[in-house]
Amino acid sequence: MPPSWQSARSRRLPRTGETVSSGGGRPARAPSGHADAMSSIDLEDLTKEYGSTRAVDRLTCTVEPGRVTGFLGPNGAGKSTTMRLVLGLDHPTSGTATIGGRPYATLREPLRTVGALLDAQAAHGSRTARDHLRFLAVSNRIPARRVDEVLEETGLAAVARRRIRTFSLGMRQRLGIAAALLGDPPVLILDEPVNGLDPEGIVWIRDLLRRLAREGRTVLVSSHLMNETAVLADHLVVLGRGRLLADVPTQDFIEQHSPPRARVRTDDPARLRATLLAEGYTVQEDDGRWVVKGARAGEVGAVAAREGIPLLELTDERASLEQAYFALTADEAEYTAAAPASSTVPQEA
């Protein structure tokens, strides 16, 4: 079953050893998806070449359960290829990609193990939303009641019998997420899940993914939206030209790529500036405040206290995720726009 049709989960994980109905009255083992290695995504020396182009270059990392992992990188960095390799849609040139220790292709009922949304446009436009999910449920022995449950959770219950070709991009995105929730699995992989969603939908998917991670599931989210990733992701995996650039908690990533900077305000600015310059700091004025490069707020405060300079405001100024990301990937972008040619204003004779 091509995983661009998806799966994931909307309620708690079954407890260890608990059984769930697989349809037809037959019990099945609960998904092995608690917060342990059985639900991690493991990449080991993963490499994919297309002719002379190496799209993924010996990538080794583990996407762990219990947190939302943001998957970042410029266009052409290898993110989509990596997800396709994980989901068995492409074969690696070398190395391995496994989910819970197993290749995707060996999963008997994949929607019960991993839910994925790679392309919201993949659903057949002539089917209704409900029929699309019913076909997926039957193919993976998922109880029919789950179809109505995920339609309700994704806000599509009222349009369940409409044909998919009449859906907006945001509605198709919600349908893809519903399909990803259908099998209630321990692993979720989403590529740009907020595309087409309105602000309410963005808040909804953010809360949903956080809840899934809190339940012990593995959540991998690829996105180009830095502000949203900063709010959502606990951990980051960053690629550049197919290589691993960072595998680190989000706040640590920002700290590592944020040069020290403090912002300070005083009623004796000239004296403070002279003192800081004498200490070797770079000082710039910004809207009535001094921005001190190369210093933390504590260091500036200590200098001011020693010299008896009263401060009215003192804070550390940290980079945003977007600024930190660009600091790391500036030389890794495969596709960059050329700088506009400078225009010359014609002179009057």
UniProtKB/TrEMBL annotation:
<comment type="similarity">
    <text>Belongs to the ABC transporter superfamily.</text>
</comment>
<dbReference type="InterPro" id="IPR003439">
    <property type="entry name" value="ABC_transporter-like_ATP-bd"/>
</dbReference>
<protein>
    <submittedName>
        <fullName>ATP-binding cassette domain-containing protein</fullName>
    </submittedName>
</protein>
<keyword id="KW-0813">Transport</keyword>
<feature type="region of interest" description="Disordered">
    <location>
        <begin position="1"/>
        <end position="40"/>
    </location>
</feature>
<dbReference type="GO" id="GO:0005524">
    <property type="term" value="F:ATP binding"/>
</dbReference>
<dbReference type="InterPro" id="IPR017871">
    <property type="entry name" value="ABC_transporter-like_CS"/>
</dbReference>
<keyword id="KW-0067">ATP-binding</keyword>
<keyword id="KW-0547">Nucleotide-binding</keyword>
<dbReference type="Pfam" id="PF00005">
    <property type="entry name" value="ABC_tran"/>
</dbReference>
<feature type="domain" description="ABC transporter">
    <location>
        <begin position="41"/>
        <end position="266"/>
    </location>
</feature>
<dbReference type="InterPro" id="IPR003593">
    <property type="entry name" value="AAA+_ATPase"/>
</dbReference>
<dbReference type="InterPro" id="IPR027417">
    <property type="entry name" value="P-loop_NTPase"/>
</dbReference>
